[in-house]
Give the backbone structure.
Amino acid sequence: MDTEFQLAEFLPYRLSRLAEQVSASLAGVYASRYRLSVPQWRILATLSESPGLSATTITRRCNLDKVKVSRAVADLEGRGLLRRRPNATDGRASELHLTAKGRRLFSRLAPLALDWQNDLLAGLSAPECDSLQHLLGQLEDRAAALSERSAAPQADCE
């Protein structure tokens, strides 16, 4: 492995740039037509799969800033796309649910997003797509393990 640092070849940098490009491109599918931001789209998609999550859980799952999630939730609620319900076990938290209007909107958006994804992956063969999914899973698992390891308390060196 080459030991000379080159930002353009540094994996975290490349993944970050790719993620931004992909998110911006996908946003073209829903941003102007449906007046949705990236955080709003992610919240709709997350709640369509897992109704009743708290804003805190969505923040972690979507890897979003809690202020962005709070603003996006407030806007979606104001537009009648989601509603809050008190959490039965924690009075400080709310469960978030898509309304019928929110579910209808997502049911129109999901096929558009899948078509966009198919266009993105069209340059790859089926085995390459499978490999990509497998490799992304491995990298996610490894990053999580490294994150846990670096978060573990370190013994003081004396």
